Amino acid sequence: MSSTTLKVAAVQAEPAWFDLQAGVAKVVSLIKEAGTNGAQLIGFPESFIPGYPGCIWTGGFDPEFLVNFQKNCLSVKSEEFATIRRAARDAGIWVVLGYTELDGYSMYGSQSFINPQGQVVLHRRKTKPTGQERTLWGDGPDSLQTVVEGPNGIKIGGLNCWEHLQPLLRFHHYSLGCQIHVACWPYLSYAEEPEAYQQFSAEMQTIATRFTAFEGQTFVICSTQLITPENFEKCRVKGTCWAPQSGGGFAAIYGPDGAKLTPDVDPGKECILYADINLDAIHMAKLSADPVGHYSRPDLLSLNVGSSSSIANPATLIRYPTGGNYKLLSKCPPALEDES
């Protein structure tokens, strides 16, 4: 492929619920499969390890569940995380991994961008956990750096779940020059299902994801979890909107004009979706509207960014840099043990 074309992959799969070792093995298997099929970039769902804890939305404080959940989360300093990095290296593929990160005794909704050498080149945490997630995850410090230079110099970026509903964050994300965006999502009920809540429906999250492609003129890899009925009890969601009979998946890949590039798939079926994309399509989409370029009015409206992650974009006229280097990335070991 040329420097402007790329084969990308979106995951739709069920987590190995609350089992760290099995979760790592599943991630490794999916990375190998995507690499074998020629993908150069694969995106994973939100909190794929150890699985999204939907029960935090349906019941009260459950220390038995939460202690087990925490014990199966992923530390960037762990051998399990190193195993995933090696898998990316061995497959020769870029990986954007969504997971619940364990740092000490605190948890975060995190994304790590791993290059084909197994190096973590971007590590970020969900800037503001949503609703009940705030009983579990901390806020993400130093997480406005959402974009990094990826394969062939292409800029890849990502956001977690309802970060897609934060207009200022999206605007900042676009200003960093994102060309391929990874949207990491859990599973969700469809609107017609019993107990479904419209705001949390798969249809609404699809709108948010597709609008990101359309608004930002960026390719979007939408990766989602699913859940099967035999795991409703284990996940403590039976009889709630977090127990969709459909499976709750809505993975897809979208173009910078908002077009869907992948076929419809059963929301209860595990699969990896692939698309061969051509970055020249971004040129076409941005001819009419570039929200951080010719289609902006920074003399009238601009964004204040309280972080050193901002770039010199004319739409971000006022910045308050905190100084220093990007600190969150320093938590990740720079090299794998077998390379040091």
UniProtKB/TrEMBL annotation:
Coiled coil: none
Family annotation (Pfam families): CN_hydrolase (PF00795)
MF terms (GO), sorted A to Z: hydro-lyase activity; nitrilase activity
InterPro entries: C-N_Hydrolase, C-N_Hydrolase_sf, Nitrilase/CN_hydratase_CS, Nitrilases_CHs
UniProt domain CN hydrolase: residue ranges: 6-279
Keyword terms of this UniProt record: Hydrolase
Protein name per UniProt: Carbon-nitrogen hydrolase
Family the UniProt entry places it in: Belongs to the carbon-nitrogen hydrolase superfamily. Nitrilase family.
